[in-house]
From TrEMBL:
Keyword Transmembrane helix in record: yes
One Pfam family this sequence matches: TspO_MBR
Top-level division of the source organism's lineage: Bacteria
Subcellular location, record wording: Membrane
Membrane topology: Multi-pass membrane protein
Molecular-function annotations in GO: kinase activity
The organism's taxonomic lineage, starting at the top: Bacteria, Pseudomonadati, Pseudomonadota, Alphaproteobacteria, Hyphomicrobiales
Family as reported in the entry's similarity comment: Belongs to the TspO/BZRP family.
Annotated protein name in UniProt: Sensor histidine kinase
Source organism per UniProt: Xaviernesmea oryzae
Spans traversing the lipid bilayer: 44-66, 73-93, 99-119, 126-149
GO cellular component, one term: membrane
GO biological process: tetrapyrrole metabolic process
The entry's keywords: Kinase, Membrane, Transferase, Transmembrane, Transmembrane helix
Length: 150
């Protein structure tokens, strides 16, 4: 199969699922009523940041699928994606702040393990996951802060 087509499909699917999860689990009144830390960014920042990250995640997923589909790195990529997609429904949909924190901490671990593993075989994929890992670390701090403040 054509590499460019596979890459575009991965990116489109990841962006599409992320978009559907986002519109299905909006912050809403419950989130607005929570006490948030002073470093909480404005709500409008999340969609463009996640969109850019989902493009990178999809690009990396396509590279793995094409070159290392049966690898441990591919399994970690799938695990991080499932954890990523589980967080918004838990946090916003079910309002389970504590459980969402467990999920996002697990996501961070998967991202770190993926970066360490990919650094040996596919440095570009590892490097593309660094901004993702940094954003998830920030999101983890937000999740934990909201849990403590509320």
């Amino acid at each position: 199969m054509n590499r460019a087509l596979v890459t575009l499909l991965f990116i489109a699917i990841i962006l599409g699922i992320g978009f559907l999860i986002g519109i299905s689990n909006p912050p809403g009144e419950w989130y607005q009523s929570l006490v948030k830390p002073p470093f909480n960014p404005p709500n409008w920042i999340f969609a463009p940041v996640w969109s850019a990250l989902y493009v990178m995640i999809g690009f990396v997923g396509a590279r793995l699928f094409l070159d290392h589909s049966k690898s441990s790195a591919m399994r970690l990529w799938i695990a991080q994606l499932l954890l990523n997609f589980a967080w918004s429904p838990l946090f916003f949909g079910l309002q389970q702040v504590e459980l969402a924190l467990v999920v996002i901490l697990s996501l961070g671990v998967c991202i770190l393990l993926f970066i360490a593993m990919a650094m040996k075989r596919d440095r570009l994929s590892a490097m593309l996951f660094i901004p993702y890992g940094l954003w998830v670390a920030f999101a983890t701090l937000l999740n934990a802060s909201i849990m403590v403040l509320n």
